[in-house]
Design a protein that fits this description.
- The protein is an alpha+beta fold and 311 residues long.
- The protein has 11 helices and 12 strands.
- It has helices at 2-20, 23-27, 32-45, 75-79, 93-96, 112-117, 127-153, 190-196, 246-250, 264-278, 303-306; strands at residues 50-53, 57-60, 66-71, 102-109, 158-159, 169-176, 179-186, 200-202, 208-210, 216-223, 256-257, 261-262.
- α3 packs across α7.
- The longest helix has 27 residues, at 127-153.
- The relative contact order is 0.15.
């Protein structure tokens, strides 16, 4: 009798939960921690992170990603519309996805094998770097598409700006010092999303220095979940860059100066030359290897260590 009564109680409780739990409430039960586990699992099972390079062999392109989170209504996103930051073309998370709650950013660090290979020659990119740039981006697109599919199955709304047909970049004339330059007024910026998501800060070479350095690729999603934001342990836009000038010294196109940062026209001309030589691939990345920020924040202990946790 008692056993039956307890069964009835459980049934009543479940019925009550179902009655009072709206669909939205069920959806928000998907925790940030569970999502991170899903990201790691999808990263591992997405095809294309291991590539076969003629004359080199089989190589893994990316280590596991760093993941950061920002409130979709973080004031930083609105500030990105300022012409001196990105520009009026920039779309806020809510414009990409009206139900936006959180922006999720990923940094996929290149493996030591990819980075090491690009340190050898001072002008031309290594085959591993070229594959990391082109096949690596294709892998990232599959990875983010896989995340979107998984989220859809969980009934979480998701937009991947880089895969969205509205994504676009408008180039505007600018100057770096005395030299002609261009400014990319983009509808979305992976680096700016990563900065907002606490993943790192900008650098002299205009890359973003993360806890795992600058050599790698960024990606992002906008989701309807409202997950806690990652604490940004910086206040300045380039806090992690020590202005050592190593990236400027490495640049085969003299596109970087400590005074003015990177000139996009000179950089693009170098990358175009490499494309003529290595088409359909292209790349350079000499400013991202053999530098103090290649795989870490220069002069800083990793975040986990600083927080007193095991790395
Ligand atoms: S090499 Fe030095 S100056 Fe260049 S981005 Fe890295 S830390 Fe900054
Ligand atoms: S990618 Fe190459 S050309 Fe462009 S700034 Fe870096 S080192 Fe210079």
């Amino acid at each position: 009798m008692e056993h039956g009564s307890s069964k009835q109680n459980v049934g009543f409780i479940l019925q009550s939960i179902r009655a009072f739990c709206t669909e939205k409430e069920v959806i928000t039960m998907y925790s940030k921690e569970a999502f991170i586990c899903d990201c790691v699992a999808i990263f591992a099972k997405t095809e294309g992170n291991t590539v076969e390079i003629p004359g080199v062999g089989s190589i893994v392109l990316f280590d596991e990603p760093l993941i950061g989170f920002a409130d979709a209504e973080d004031a930083l996103f609105e500030s990105y519309r300022q012409p001196e930051i990105i520009g009026t073309n920039f779309m806020s998370p809510k414009e990409w996805l009206p139900a936006a709650g959180t922006v999720v950013s990923f940094f996929l660090p290149f493996t030591e094998a990819v980075r090491r290979s690009n340190r050898a020659d001072r002008t031309d990119p290594s085959p591993e770097w070229l594959y990391g740039r082109i096949e690596g981006q294709a892998f990232i697109s599959r990875f983010t598409a896989g995340l979107k599919k998984m989220l859809k199955e969980r009934r979480t709304e998701c937009c991947v700006p880089s895969l969205d047909e509205r994504f676009g970049i408008r180039f505007e004339a600018a100057f770096t010092g005395e030299k002609p330059d261009f400014h990319a007024d983009s509808r979305w910026s992976e680096r700016h999303a990563a900065y907002a998501c606490g993943l790192g800060t900008f650098s002299l070479s205009r890359g973003l220095i993360s806890e795992k350095g600058i050599a790698g690729r960024y990606a992002s999603l906008i989701v309807s979940e409202t997950w806690p934001a990652t604490v940004r342990d910086y206040t300045g836009v380039d806090d992690y860059c020590i202005k050592c000038g190593a990236c400027a010294r490495n640049c085969p196109a003299q596109a970087i100066t400590v005074e003015h940062g990177k000139n996009n026209v000179l950089c693009k001309a170098q990358v175009d030359r490499m494309q003529e030589k290595y088409s359909p691939r292209y790349g350079c990345g000499k400013c991202q290897v053999n530098v103090p920020c290649e795989f870490r924040v220069p002069g800083k202990r990793p975040r986990a260590e600083r927080a007193g946790k095991a790395p």
